[in-house]
Amino acid sequence: MPSQIIERYKRILSGEQKRFSPYEFEEMLYRKQKVQLVLRYAIEQVKKWTPEEARKNLCPKDVMDLKLHLVKEFIDPPIEAKADDVYYLVEYAYPYLPRPGEKQKALVVYMEVLAGKRRHFPLHYFQTLKGEERAKICFEYLWQELLGIKSVYELPSLFTRTEDAYQLLRKYKLKILVDTLYFSPFDMVTEMYPELNDPKLWNGNF
């Protein structure tokens, strides 16, 4: 039964037992509940943290010290998570915790790429409909915040010349949008903003 998992986890923490049985999490019906029970016990009973404190303070060393790597393998990390991130273990344990929206998450990733904290965007980050949403969030941040452009109708003047457009996108780490989603910078801009798909706005230069 799921409730017995804590007794086995206590034995692991005390050193009496090295790991969980390979069959412990075999039943999908109980797997999530068992993982949550272990995480909550570690956070509340061992570390004496609130869920909010755990999300803020939990680090990779804690995960190893608390033997949580034994259950981490059963949790799919969010696409935004870096290799050393562990915050999502807490979010898995407490699904009711408020979480940042897609826009906030995408902007955090983009800021980290711009700052060099990430070498590149996560794999497949701009694929699927959700990926297209992330692409537009990042691109809008580029022209609204980084370039200080006030109106979407100013974009054609920046993206009319293809090579200039590529240079701009490279500078701000967004050339990947054209590489993975669109045929050209023009295609990207007019797909995101259909109102700009007017030859008069582009002086006939496509």
Automatic annotation (TrEMBL):
Residues 108-197 form the DUF4046 domain. This is DUF4046 domain-containing protein. InterPro entries: DUF4046. It comes from Brevibacillus fluminis. Pfam families: DUF4046.
